[in-house]
Structures are given as C-alpha cells and as structure tokens.
Amino acid sequence: AVKHWIIAATLGDDSPIEFMMEMSEEGYVSKDDLAAALRAHQAAVDAAKSVQREAAEEYKRAAELRDEILFMQPESTHHGDCPICCLPLLHDRSKSTINLCCSKIICNGCDHANELREIEGKLKFKCPFCRQHVQANDKADEMMMKRIEANDPEAMCQWGRDQYKKGDYSSAFEYFTRAAELGDVLAHYQLALMHHYGDGVEKDKGKEMYHLEEAAIGGHPLARHNLGYGYWNDYGNAERAVKHLIIAANQGYDRSIKLLLEIFKEGKVSKEVLAAALRAHQAAVDA
What we know:
67% helix, 2 strands, elongated
C-alpha cells in the first residue's frame, strides 16, 4: 500500500499524503518513506504550477497581441479603393458597381466614364476593368459560378448573399465560410450576423464576436461599431467600447459618433477624446 501511495504522491495527488501521515503516526509508515513522498509530492505540485504559470503567461501574451492587432486603425475601409482611379470606395454601395465578369468593384465615376467613352465611340460595352464584353443579365449566374470555381472570395460572398436573401441559409453559410477562409471581410460580417440571429445555425455569441473582430480588423466600420455597441450595452465595458467606436468614427461612421456622445453624457469618455473623434470623423466624411 505504501508503494502505491508514494507513486500517487509523485503525481501530485494530495490524498495519499494525508493517508501516509495518518499511517506514520500509527507506525505503519516510516519517517523516511513519508519524507520521500512529501518531497516527491511537492516537486510534482511545483512542476504543475510552473506549467500553469507558463500557460497563463502564453495566453496573456496571445491576448495582448490579439488586442494590438484588433485596435489598430485600418488604413481604409473593407471596400478598399477603386482599382481604376485608386480613390477610396464610399460606404454607400449604391455609389459603386460590382462587375460579375471579374468581381471587381468599380466606383460609379469610372463606370460612367467608361460608358460615355463607349457610347461616343460607338463601341461594344466592355467591363471597365477586365475589358470583357458585358453579358446579358441571364448570364449573370453563369459568370458568377465561373468566378467561384476560380476561388474568387468576392464572388463566393456575393453568391452567399443571394442565397441568404432567398432564405437558403445552408448554402449561404457554406459560401460565406469559404469566402471568409480566403480572407473576405464582408463574409466574416455576414457569418457574425448568422450566428447572432441564428439563421441556419445555432446562436453563438463567441463565434459572432470572433467574426465581428475579423471583419473589424479588415476595416468593416459596421462590424467595428457593433463591437463597440456590444461592449457598452451588453458587457458594460466602456474602455473597450470607446476604443472600437473611435476607430469606426475615424472611418466616417455616423452612428459611432452618436453612441460616443451618449457615453460622454454618462461620464465615461473625456471631452478631449470626444473632440478628437469628432474631428477625425469629419475629416473622413469630407475626404
């Protein structure tokens, strides 16, 4: 029995030590065996604590690195720049056009300029970016599938949105997931919405937050605003909420300024921080 207790003690189990101390008092366990078991037990406990400390420190470092990436101000929104004029695309998607032949989003200005050039020159209509001939609307699905087969994340996300609107949540989730794995920011946001509302999947706050963070890192202002709103309204964490809202405001997102004003009234954000956010927001709007 003593041998078994000693072996268990070397694994860090407390119970054998208690038994051995009782048996030692009654003379069934020698002092030497008890001392050896105590040393082995303490060594096992110290080793376990060391591993736990290392794991905790590693987790802390990973969390700090994640926050450093998360709270970095994106250079632009997830829309990026028009590939022709290289000017930032506006938040309002009605101000831009997606071309199904190449899945490129073109600002309305460049699209209109290309259209005028073709009308004046009596030319056949072509995509302003890839120069393919514009196909009839009944060819739209065929062109989209060709882009999907070419592993185009923009096309996958667009197809997923089409399926989502039709109520085919299973297909939408599949294409959003594929697009997100290829780095599509909008697909991450759409997945966050599906996990929030439970559309075709179980509601999952953890997955919702993960996809919102990925979308925010990619420059999605609404995803960033929703993170700020969630930390303020659901978790009561004003510090993280304000950080997210300032970044969204710097991207020109109006609703984030309104929420910052509400938080300011609660005394959770200073006048200086609010004033800086207002200036940055106005600069983004004017740009």
